[in-house]
Model the fold of this input.
Amino acid sequence: MERERQQQQLYALVGEMNEALDQKRWRRLPGLHQQVMKVFHQYAAWETDASALREVKANMLAAFETLIERRTQRAQELKACMDKHQQNLEGVLAYSMVNLISEKA
Done:
């Protein structure tokens, strides 16, 4: 019974991590990761069936691989957005400088 609850809690925490990623709440991820690791270690201590433990490990590994891929993709999107923003700011600054120089002339 306790093992099932811990399994459900593990999968719920991974779901929360995905949700945090969807909502761009990056700062929640480290705390959720710590909770996942704590619950997983508790689960592993309770689990006596090696095949069940292997299955949960495989599921968690797949879930984390997906999270890492999604997080990497989001980070790349954020970087591209910030680069574009920086270019726009530089363009505005250059335009302002040209206006300032042309007004003085």
Remarks:
- The CA atoms of residues 10 and 37 lie 9 Å apart.
